[in-house]
Amino acid sequence: MHLRVNAESAAFYHAAAIEEDKTNTKLHDLLATQKKLIRWEFVLKFCISSADYLGSILSYIAIAFPIFYGHYDDLPPADMSSLISKNAFVSIYLINCFTTLMDQASSVTDVAGTAHRIGQLFEVLATLTEDQKEHRNSLCRPYSESFQEGSNSVREMTTRYAFEMEGVTYGPPKSSIVCCRGLTLQLKPNSNILVTGDSGCGKTSLIRIISGLWRSYQGSVNLGAGRIPQEIMYLPQKPYLTNGSLWDQIVFPSSETEVIPDDYKIYQYLSAVGLDPLVERIGGLDKDMDWNWHDELSPGEMQRLSFVRLFFHHPPFAILDEATSQVSEDMETILYQTCADLHITLLSVGHRNSIRRFHDFVLHISNDGGWTFQPLSNDHDGSRPDGGGGGEGSQSGHREQRDGAKGGRRAV
Ligand SMILES: Nc1ncnc2c1ncn2[C@@H]1O[C@H](COP(=O)(O)OP(=O)(O)OP(=O)(O)O)[C@@H](O)[C@H]1O
Q1: Pocket probe mutation, ligand 1, options 175, 205, 235, 367, max atoms within 8 Å of Cβ
Q2: Which residue has the CA at smallest separation from atom 20 of ligand 1?
Q3: 340-355 per-position pLDDT tens digit
Q4: 113 and 189 share a domain?
Q5: So what's the pLDDT on residue 371?
Q6: 355-364 confidence digits (pLDDT tens)
Q7: Does residue 384 sit within a domain?
Q8: Residue 58 shares a structural domain with residue 185
Q9: Where is the composition biased (Gly residues) (predicted)?
Q10: Among 127-131, 134-138, 198-202, the least confident range
């Protein structure tokens, strides 16, 4: 499966020989396990069949013994044959019950295996604390459930924040790695934040903390608008595309019935990101495609399509995790400019200098777990592309050059 999905990449590496070797090793492991299983099944089936045959033989012995030992000699022939037939009926009935029971043995072993796995699952679930269950439930809140709430309050959110974190120390779960220590950050309307840092410093991990996928080691994360999926949208580096038509990709994660169909708006956005030829190629916006969208679109097209999704939903906040890494700088500018025109406040992870002018602040995470938060006004011409200018002097005032904990990355 892994090879089938990544066949092209493997072919570019001319990796046929090594992948064949690895696949054969896995196949041999599988065959060895199957052989073991067949051996055990053979023993089980042999015992069951032997018990079946033994039962039939036993029933004949039980009937024949009294006859040949002369217990029925003094009975008239009619009574004797009736008694023998009664004995035969009872013994055959008992043997039949016994063999049915034995035949269930293989089903019982199957059920026992499944029951054991379910038991293990229950044991793990029982170890979850109430707090963790609440956290899990909040993550499972479906987008559709909050649709009404979100659509009513989208514009009200301009006065609120997407999230705020205070003294947050985080890293991968159940790990000793600390990506960032004591981070204090707030995403407010019209104040875009750019997150920078070396590869592996914890930029995506920060987004995982904000979205609630990971929990912080220390500190508090309060989700304002971020609690409502309608008000914040996450664009990962590798977009998620669902089954169905192009229309389904754009309205995702809503369903068709939850959104107002506005083909004109969608065509406008598709054309802005240069994806209008795609509509012609597939034969219409709502033509159901049975292909895998990930195989049919290039990485850049997928990223542009995910921006069309963002523009269509038009949330007040968006979090972009290297969401333009596969598109050209010109296209990147168009995408960021459209976000600015739509007044979508961004927290973005990105490496290109060209996107700095679309941000008001930069959060830099260093490899030692420290961080700095600075205004970007000195780095560009001082004016936001939407003319807003951020107006967040007070926010940067007390956070400017604020350092996170010093020292190397260490275990907690
Ligand atoms: N699921 C995981 N389990 C354990 N450790 C992880 C997991 N995901 C990431 N890490 C580790 O956490 C650290 C931070 O990873 P993260 O993905 O946040 O880096 P990043 O700054 O986004 O990197 P890049 O710029 O390359 O995308 C890395 O050391 C990484 O190996």
Answers
A1: 205
A2: 200
A3: 999 999 999 988 888 9
A4: no
A5: 95
A6: 999 999 999 9
A7: no
A8: no
A9: 385-394
A10: 134-138
Residue 224: which pLDDT band, with cuts at 50, 70 and 90?
Answer: confident
Q: Domain of residue 323: give its range.
A: 163-375
Domain count for the chain, please give it. Answer: 2
Q: Which of 175, 194, 203 to mutate to test the pocket of ligand 1 (most atoms within 8 A of CB)?
A: 203
Asked if 232 and 162 count as a contact pair (C-beta separation under 8 A), the reply is yes
Å from CA of 204 to ligand 1 middle:
7
DSSP per-residue letters across 164-180:
EEEEEEE-STT-S--SE
Q: Which residues contact 184 (CB under 8 A, 6 or more apart)?
A: 165, 166, 167, 168, 373, 399, 402
What is the rounded average pLDDT of the residues 52-69? 81
Give yes or no: residues 39 and 92 share one domain: yes
What pTM was computed for the model?
Answer: 0.70
User: Same domain, yes or no, for 199 and 114?
Assistant: no
Same domain, 310 and 254: yes
Question: Over the range 287-306, which residues count as b (16 or more CB within 10 Å of their CB) and which as e?
Answer: eeeeeebeeebeebbbbbbb
User: Which residue's C-alpha comes closest to atom 1 of ligand 1?
Assistant: 172
Q: Are residues 74 and 174 in the same domain?
A: no
Side-chain-side CA neighbours of residue 44 (13 Å)? 15
